[in-house]
Here is the input.
Amino acid sequence: MSRILSAPRAGIVIAVLGLLVMGFGICRGEMAVVLEKAINICMECVGIG
Here is the structure.
């Protein structure tokens, strides 16, 4: 396993895979859900929400 992760192209492959997964989440509308939850948490910490 460590031989696979130490290969020069492994970092690039993992980065591309991460970007693909992020793009899939954005297409599903998950970015809006995460932003809404972040706003709610901030409002609770400040004491407004």
